[in-house]
Write a structure and sequence with these properties.
By secondary structure, this protein is α/β, with parallel strands linked by helices. Helices cover about 40% and strands about 20% of the residues. Helix 7 links the parallel strand 2 and strand 3. It is elongated and about 60 Å long.
């Protein structure tokens, strides 16, 4: 039996399947990863551009990067991998998604249950009055952009030095501890605390199905099935197998 067929069979029999997604699933939508060759950290030192202290000390400087990220996200569209996960949820074969991504593409594809572990760039919040606006409504004339109250605006993303939102952390870990199968898609699983999710699922007897373009620290010791390749090709194959 091929690995994709085994994966489809496991998902078919699972009463509770969860997905953990990372930058790899959105790369095919034109969103560059932060890490690795060609990533944003090649051009923006994360210590200077991605910590909450850097933002508070010099928000205009950090907004140079945030503005670029926002422009990329506004141009991006869900790819076949996003759409396949939405279809799995619609079929009743996927309980939800925990995503490390901040691009909102899972929701754009149609997924209803999405835990945004690192927040979202699609929503902008005022640091003073807490007013929220959508990214597409943001008009940037100067950096940093300011709220009508005069406060500094910030995407609702989790910068280094900020805690993971409590509800997202609690719900993600609870889902990981009760799922029967976990799809790990497009993530190297090295960034804590999201990296704990596959370990929690494994410790609670879930079957781990990893889909990545290359092996990771999960591949040999944690993953039960490793599907090497493009998520936008592999996930639709699994969906088609489940329809047969």
């Amino acid at each position: 039996m091929k690995a994709t067929e085994r994966a489809a069979e496991i998902i078919s029999r699972s009463s509770a399947t969860l997905a953990l997604t990372g930058a790899g699933i959105s790369a095919e939508s034109g969103i560059p990863p932060f890490r690795g060759q060609g990533g944003l950290w090649d051009r923006y030192n994360p210590e200077e551009y991605a910590t909450i202290d850097a933002f508070l000390n010099n928000p205009g400087k950090v907004w140079n990067m945030l503005k670029e990220v926002g422009e990329i996200i506004l141009k991006s569209k869900p790819n076949d991998a996003h759409r396949a996960l939405a279809e799995l949820e619609e079929m009743g074969k996927l309980r939800g998604i925990v995503t490390q991504n901040i691009d909102g593409l899972h929701q754009a594809a149609g997924n209803k249950t999405v835990i945004e572990f690192h927040g979202t760039h699609k929503q902008i919040i005022c640091m003073s009055c807490c007013k929220r606006i959508k990214l597409e409504q943001l008009i940037i004339q100067d950096l940093p952009p300011l709220c009508s109250c005069g406060g500094i605006l910030k995407p609702e993303v989790v910068l280094f030095g900020e805690p993971i939102p409590y509800d997202a952390l609690r719900t993600a870990f609870q889902e990981a501890s009760t799922c029967k199968a976990l799809l790990v898609i497009g993530t190297s699983a090295v960034v804590a605390p999201a990296s704990q999710i596959p370990l929690i699922a494994k410790q609670n007897a879930a079957t781990i199905i990893e889909i990545n373009t290359e092996s990771t620290i999960l591949t040999t010791g944690i993953s039960d099935i490793f599907l090497e390749g493009s998520a936008s090709q592999i996930l639709p194959q699994i969906v088609n197998l489940l329809k047969q």
